[in-house]
Amino acid sequence: MRGDGDGxxxxxxxxxxxxxxxAAGLLLRAPLPDGSAAVLLQHRAPWSHQGGTWGLPGxxxxxxxxxxxxxxxxxxxxxxxxxxxLTVRTTVVxxxxxxxxxxxxxxxxxxxxxxxxxxxxxNRESAELRWVAVDEVADxxxxxxxxxxxxxxxxxxxxxxxxxxxxx
Length: 168
Description:
17% of the residues lie in helices and 36% in strands. By secondary structure, the chain is an alpha+beta fold. The protein has one domain: Nucleoside Triphosphate Pyrophosphohydrolase.
């Protein structure tokens, strides 16, 4: 079902941003066998905006959604991730466009943990989904917005202990 958030916001400078009510993405972490963290990245389909780059599952927020709700919904739609396996840890506003009337558009990165490397199911917006060691993320051709925020996000992620699977 198509939400009311789908659509472009055009800033005062003429730049266009996806999501009539802003956008959100999920930075999902899970433990590798050695206990270090991996993050789930999405290789964007060639036809999509900034196609061929790596980023986070995410998209437009609907008017009734929080950033957390939008990111979890989008991660389910784009990667088949079950909401009941995700633990939201924090949120970081990683992009903001302001105009004369205040904030016109924002992107919120929702940082969450999973108890293990979850199986994924890509939709048509993904060429591939991959668990990537945190230290290897910057080696990929990243979506420009994600690339611009990765250093800051990496610092936040490093400051939050990874929730480990208690059964494994």
